[in-house]
Amino acid sequence: MFKHSIFLRIYAGLVILVALVALFAYLLVQIINYQRAQEYRESLTDGVSYIISEGIARQPNEQQKLDWISDAADLLELPIYYVDAAKVELSRTEQKRISNRKAVVRYDAENSAASIIIGLQKDSKHLLYIKVDKIGERQMKALPIFILDYLVYYPGQEKEYLAKIQSNFSYPIEIVKVQSLPLDSEQVGRLRLDHSIILYRDSASVRGTTISIVSPIPSSPSEVLVLGPVPLFNWMPFQLAAGITLLSLFVLSLGVYGLLVPMQRRLREVNYALHRMKSGDMTLRLPVDGTDEMASLATNYNSMSDHILRLIEAQRELMRAVSHELRTPVARIRFGMEMLAEEEDYDYRLQQVDMIDKDIEALNTLIDEIMTYAKLEQGTPSLDFEKIILFEVLDQVVVETEALKTQKEIVLHAPSIDVVVDAERRYLHRVVQNLVGNAVRYCDHKVIVSGGIDDDGYAYVQVEDDGAGIPEEERQRIFEAFTRLDDSRTRASGGYGLGLSIVSRIAYWFGGKIDVDQSPTLGGARFTMSWPLKIQGFNQTKKKLSGFERE
User: Fold this and answer.
1) Which domain CATH number covers 336?
2) Which of 93, 200, 496, 518 gives a 20 to 30 Å CA spacing to 351?
3) Which residues does the UniProt record annotate as the domain Histidine kinase (predicted)?
């Protein structure tokens, strides 16, 4: 019982899924944190790299640039190299950052060290390469010095130029009054001695712990330069993430359990109905509740039962029609055999053999028509759609029909050689062949064959004749199997009444339709089959159906 329980199988799958989701969540957190950490490092260095680049650009010659870089290295206590840009391999992303005057940070997790690459303004042939193996108070307190060195060129306009470069920093930089800051007396005293101070602030908000760097401004003792607050990188706590994930998955499992119980009950109803069908009782119908997948399953079951009943009835009708159609050629063959047994004239015997051969060929034709119709009617044709030049199919059928020497005029209004349609060549050929053969059989003198693309963007083939036409009240009935009209289209004209039925089913499987009306040119019947110019998912789905849905 447990082995065949859909609940246990689905729940076991959910347990495996839970483990996979937990593993995926852990890996995703690591990947996201790595990317966040990289973006965090780059955001901290972008502003400083811009200021350093501006400082070097102000130096009038190569030697002064090197001296400025040497002073900056001493200030930061970090090695800074003035390197040839051609010797540094940059990725496309790194090149884009350099061109946008942003820093490139390459972090080495094994050695806990980073390399910072800075592009230089007005000097595309060189780059600054900084090796960073530590970040301490000395490096942080040196940052305001570079900004103040930049502002010294704009006396009296420090705040305006500070606002201009703000966009290069991911944290605020501003000049404020000393009195506006929450500083104690010791911190104020250090500022008066021209020492920078670092302020740490803990907060229960999303920002968490932040750092601000406060540096005195030599030209304005009452004001200070403030960098920050800069939030410290906050790694997502794994324990909290794991706990929330497991709790969410547990609640999800309980919810899925509640959903599976009614689903299992409805599946039992479907299983019971299928057992009834297997025993031959197809009268049971399932209730359709709601619009979910189970309701769709019940609807499909009911449609399948109705279709099977229709197929059984159609099979009975087909058997009755086939038995009726077979009687005539079989009777002629029997009569011919009896005549052969009694006749001694050699020429007459040859004539009877020839007639019997024609009857056997008629039987073969009838069997082929019945097999084709049955295959299309049962909803299981093997369709292989491809790009087809419509002119080739129409021209082939016209040439084949003219070779039969029917003494009828067949005119091809050929479409352009560029008209390409989606179709199954064998069945499209059968459609045109049946329609042309039908028109030749019932026309007086002339048949017109045409095709192309209509105004709605559908492909079409069209056959019209100058015969007596089809009465309007009979135009739908002629597509039924073994249907032949008794007036202008008499049994003496030949055929078995399956040709148009086959055309109708092929049109259905092409996703199109077949229409008949009066030819405005010749006055007889005009048959038009149209189908989508590009067949995508329609027929691939139809091939898998068993004909449950019919037009």
Assistant:
1) 1.10.287
2) 496
3) 321-535
Helix (H) or strand (E) holding 211: strand 210-217
Asked whether residue 508 is domain-assigned, the answer is: yes
Q: Are residues 387 and 373 part of one domain?
A: no
Based on the fold, state whether residues 478 and 332 are members of the same structural domain.
no
Residues 391-410: tens digit of each pLDDT: 999 999 999 888 888 889 99
Measured distance CA(368)–CA(383) in Å, rounded = 18
SS (H, E, C) 343-371: CCCHHHHHHHHHHHHHHHHHHHHHHHHHH
> Do residues 4 and 76 share a domain?
yes
Tell whether 122 and 211 lie within a shared domain: no
Q: Is the peptide bond before 155 cis (omega within 30 degrees of 0)?
A: no
* Residue 217 neighbours by CB distance under 10 Å: 19
448 burial level (CB within 10 Å; 0-12, 13-18, 19+)? buried
Kindly state the tokens that stand for 147. Answer: 């900004």
Residue 2's pLDDT is what?
43
* Contact between residue 226 and residue 174 where contact means Cβ atoms under 8 Å apart: yes
Q: 393 pairs with which residues across the strands?
A: none
Q: Are 130 and 118 in contact (CB under 8 A)?
A: yes
Could you tell me if 303 and 410 lie in one domain? no
Q: Which one, of 464, 459, 453, 476, lies nearest residue 530 by Cα?
A: 459
Q: What percent of the chain has pLDDT over 90?
A: 12
Q: What is the DSSP string of 49-106?
A: HHHHHHHHHT-SSHHHHHHHHHHHHHHHTS-EEEEEGGGS---HHHHHHHHTT--EEE
Based on the structure, what is the number of domains in the chain? 4
Concatenated DSSP letters for 95-162? HHHHHTT--EEEEETTTTEEEEEEEETTEEEEEEEEEES---HHHHHHHHHHHHHHHTTSTT-HHHHH
**Phi-psi domain of 24 (left: phi exceeds 0; alpha: psi -120 through 50; beta: other):** alpha
Whether residues 391 and 328 share a domain: the answer is no
Return the pLDDT at 240.
58
CA angle 221, 222, 223 (to 5 degrees): 95
**What tokens were used for 420?**
């390409």
The pTM of this model reads 0.44
Whether the CA torsion 427, 428, 434, 437 is positive or negative: it is negative
Higher pLDDT, 260 or 463: 463
Tens digits of per-residue pLDDT, 133-185? 877 778 888 888 888 888 888 888 888 888 888 888 888 999 989 888 888 88
Q: Which of 112-116, 162-166, 491-495, 534-538 has the lowest mean pLDDT?
A: 491-495
Domain that holds residue 199: 136-147+158-236
Cβ contacts of 345 within 8 Å, gap of 6 or more: none
- Sequence letter at residue 13: G
Residue 450 DSSP SS3:
strand
Mean pLDDT of 372-378: 62
User: Looking at the structure, do residues 529 and 393 belong to the same domain, yes or no?
Assistant: yes
At residue 420, φ and ψ (nearest 5 deg) are: -115, 130
